[in-house]
Design goal:
Blueprint (H helix, E strand, L loop, with lengths): L4 E2 L14 E6 L2 E6 L5 E5 L33
Length: 77
């Protein structure tokens, strides 16, 4: 059995009462409950997988791509 603790300064999202929420962890989940109105909710303690973005993916080394650059000065030859 988990120890249920009150959260100092926490405000209930349903009834807006302060210092009425208690919280505990059980089976990889975090639970909270308001003793004033009975509001309850829970959330997983496991971090979600990071979404792939262009910032966190490996980028090809620009040295591997060789491009020929032709300089055009506007004069015909």
């Amino acid at each position: 059995m988990s120890i249920k603790r009150f959260i100092a300064g926490a405000v209930c999202p349903k009834c807006s009462e302060m210092d009425k929420l208690k919280a505990w962890q059980e089976g990889g989940m975090q639970y909270r409950e308001c003793v004033a109105c009975g509001f309850t909710d829970s959330m997983s303690l496991e971090a979600p997988e990071e979404l792939p973005t262009r910032v966190n993916q490996a980028q090809p080394d620009p040295k591997d791509e060789i491009q020929v650059v032709k300089i055009f000065d506007g004069k015909t030859q």
